[in-house]
């Protein structure tokens, strides 16, 4: 009976997935810049493709000022604002892009064809050039949106980097993840300092970085154990 129930549930889900749907907004991100308000939406069509549309708030409602076409995973993510530009990141399979929208104009513009930005402070942002997987880190970069120049800061996981108190904290790996350096630098990539060096005979992963301490996991033959460190 249990197997019959599971089979019936799977059949119902497959039928529901096959039913065409109308284009639908799955979320709105509210963005403000230069005294204006924008809304970034992600929308689906009947083929389950998606597009990103940027609306500007007006006195009569809202109008579209930039949009992508419908495609698989055509999702832009808002990163930040600098000057008169809004910045967005895109990734799908092996494709990574950074786009911008200039306030008062129309359309998205390609800013960088090989960089995905995660977060911004002023004219500096951090991100990576390769889509990481579960088994390997990626190359981390600092990107100056004003000059469009990038600075390499180390090999690490995109989840192990963040802004804390005006600085960037991240983890750099070597020796097949058996050596981890907890790092700190300025938003522009200068002033790099090793706060703590960790060495283990087993690989170390998934750091949760805080200002004075961090937690992480040790992979002992596929048995993950949590550990912590202060610096």
UniProtKB/TrEMBL annotation:
<feature type="signal peptide">
    <location>
        <begin position="1"/>
        <end position="23"/>
    </location>
</feature>
<protein>
    <recommendedName>
        <fullName>DUF5050 domain-containing protein</fullName>
    </recommendedName>
</protein>
<keyword id="KW-0732">Signal</keyword>
